[in-house]
Amino acid sequence: MSDDKTSPWPQWPVHPFALAQQATDYWIDACQRSVLFMDVLRQRGDERNHRDEQPAPHVLSFEFETILDGRHLERPVNYGLLYILPPDGIAPDPHKRPFIVFDPRAGHGPGIGGMKQDSEIGVVLKAGHPCYFVGFLPQPVPGQTIEDVCRAEAQFIARVAALHPHADGKPALIGNCQAGWQIMMTSALNPDLVGPLVLAGAPLSYWAGVRGKNPLRYLGGVLGGTWMTALAGDLGNGIFDGAQLVANFEKMNPSNTLWAKNYNVYSKIDTEAGRFLEFEKWWGNPVLLNAGEMQYIADSLFVGNRLSDAALIDSNGHRIDLRNIKSPIVVFCSWGDDITPPQQALGWVLDLYEDDAALAAGGQTIIYSMHQSIGHLGIFVSASVANKEHEEFTAAMDMIDIMPPGLYEAVFLDKDEEMLQAEIAAGDMAGGDFVMRFERRGLDALRALGGNDAEDERRFAAVARVSEINTGLYRTYASPVVKAMVTEASAEQQRESHPLRLRYRMFSSKNPLLDGIPAMAAKVRAERRPVAPDNVFMQMQETMSRQIVDALDRYRDLRDQATENIFLGVYGSPLLQALVGLRTDGGRPRRIGRDIAREAALNAHRAAAAMKTAEGGVTEAIIRGLLYIYRSPEMSAADERAFATIRQLRLRTSDDKELSVTHFKTILREQYLMLQVDEEAAMHDLPLLLPASAEARAAALAIVRQVAGATGTLTGDGAVRLERVVAAFEARAPKLAVAGKRGKA
């Protein structure tokens, strides 16, 4: 027996008979686990074969009805709009804004946004909102393009809005991964159509990242650009196989793909089989894309990075500029996400705006939240994430919709005893187990996440130009030859022989070698003898597994480092950069395109706002006063308690109707813009909005005090600003006040 206390290997039992007994127990357990594991793989393969025969496979755990079939649109697509039928005991409120969940078409089939009851869809339904889902079929409509899909999504959103004419707010959109950048494109082209956007693990700045991490962004450069995407489309006879995208994801983490995922099921076969089979239902059914769709994605986004440059133009000549989006944008990402790291989820903000003033002047509200550890898929499927982040985003959506322009970080605070007692006294102002707090941030907070320097940007720009050259050469000289050799039969055979599909088919009932496995598994379950955790041979198994994982992780790290070194060396070459024309630019390798019409409209809107500081009534006065207070540098955060207080106070319009979220947002944006353009003029004219009655002014001031103090007593500059507002409200209203424009609180 070894005396080395640092050895990773377990210590042997002293008595030889004890060792023999442990060996026997382990042998029986290992054989039983092997049979059960083979049966789990068989069930997985059978499930995949069954789903492959279905015309519209999905993994939604909710019942639904089809509202719009995209195949019947003027520009047909394989997408569809579904209404999620509420489970028993849940009745959506027709006055609450509807939500639409968009699932990613990035190799896998639809349904991950509603695969569990505790999911994005489940959270929306539990909150009482009508919920819709946009999914897709496994086969694309011939000739459909990404632009066609965006056009169809706009029609889906318009239909949902029409179905809920009394809803307080435009439809809120949740876009997972690939669906996130797609709804951003749709919203940029239709800014008046959509409500708040939630982007969950969605990449928008494809070059962004930090050295030593995020190796997937180097793939286009190492492959010489997107010519291989064109080759794959030609070999598929005009179809790109989504299994290749899934394979790329799997290659990122070989220890999990080749060992850990299956070993976890094998070693915990009595508890992990169900979870494994549930996930594999989604993972094992890759969908197809038109070759043109995938080429557009690879050229314009992954390698070209043209979305965050405002460099994409649709077929009607409209610029796809994310700065055109008027609705708030919520970006949910994670440090544990190796597919969409925070830099790729948020880098587009730095691409489009030079400073904080430009972001605020553009009227855009961006809220971000960064989970510390959850992986890419956990953002969509983790019950803990659904019951915290997604639940809070959903509950606070009306507040998010009225947030003033700027950059904010969403912070989730556990409710303490003081908060709970305050809620009881106020009638549960915020609800849930957390309070969502929006803390004001500057663009420097995003820069601090890390990213590319100018030389790195030049390297990626060189990749984009090399890609154009190589793809052009392939299209001109090789593509005609490949297309002449490919038939539909050969393309189908190639897809069916992909390793992703083969591994499911081999371990299924279609393999006659597995015919006896179900009966053997039933017998094993009846006679199951799991080994004790302290069995020395079981401990040896665990040690060997860890060593295999460590070896594969070391291989991955060496591979990724070599990939990065090759990328940096090849595309950092001054000669290569000069050959593709980069060194002649003499400046930044990327330039964001200006939209003169957009800038003119913004300037005209700001000028018009500066002329309206004396217009409005008591509701406008209350909102202007609160915004003035919250513009204090010390008032760097607001949480849902303040918004809940406003909603409870039931502010009203000038015609004595309850103020809707949409109307509230309009007033708030106007008042914020006035303060931004000329704060002194706006505050000087504030008394003009108030009624002559001292009693009415006192009632309005009480609202300001209550909302401003909803999260605690004001101090410092915030308290000074409150006193100025108090003085304005207590002043006698001038006789020039226009009575017809006054409202009531």
UniProtKB/TrEMBL annotation:
<dbReference type="InterPro" id="IPR029058">
    <property type="entry name" value="AB_hydrolase_fold"/>
</dbReference>
<protein>
    <submittedName>
        <fullName>DUF3141 domain-containing protein</fullName>
    </submittedName>
</protein>
<dbReference type="InterPro" id="IPR024501">
    <property type="entry name" value="DUF3141"/>
</dbReference>
<dbReference type="InterPro" id="IPR051321">
    <property type="entry name" value="PHA/PHB_synthase"/>
</dbReference>
<dbReference type="Pfam" id="PF11339">
    <property type="entry name" value="DUF3141"/>
</dbReference>
